[in-house]
Amino acid sequence: MRILRAGDHKRMPWKNGKGETVEIAVFPPDASINDFDWRISMATVAEDGPFSIFPGIDRTLAILDGNGMVLDVEGSSPVLLTTASDPLAFPADIPVAARLEDGAITDLNVMTRRDGLAHTLIRIDVDGSKTVPLSPATCLLLCHRGALSFRRDGETGALAAGDALLVEATTATALEIDGEARCYLASITTG
């Protein structure tokens, strides 16, 4: 297990140059925007426009902050995403256009290379104590709001807003969480 502090996340321009992304974690560790196997990042979207195209990549997006964004994914009906919406999965290599509902939003992106990897992303609200099952995969828990402490197999730690916990090649087990927080759990599996 490794804690990734908010202040250490890497800031970089979007692939299309129209904004900035905050990279939380990427694999391989020094991979670029063009050659990662998986990547988890946050971005602020301040204007309507197209998403960057990532050949061979699957993507899941969740709205962290703001009043929402309509995503028009080619071949599907437009979908309004808000902070209350479930994360939306879609291919990152087809045209996608975004239209803001009312001002800028911040989103969370999980992307995996389709050839060999898959992922899930869920929102977890914590108010007190909670047990979060971890799949036998690489898992990343982002503490978006609030703060929490965690325990797993004798290891303990704490996350503040913006911090993440990376659990690599875990065996199926659980993470014990205490606190008040809104979190997102990304699980990355091979197959």
From TrEMBL:
Keywords: Plasmid. Gene3D superfamilies: Jelly Rolls (2.60.120.10). CDD domains: cupin_HutD_N (cd20293). InterPro entries: RmlC-like_jellyroll, RmlC_Cupin_sf, Uncharacterised_HutD/Ves. It comes from the Bacteria. The keyword Transport does not apply. This is HutD family protein. It comes from Rhizobium johnstonii (strain DSM 114642 / LMG 32736 / 3841) (Rhizobium leguminosarum bv. viciae).
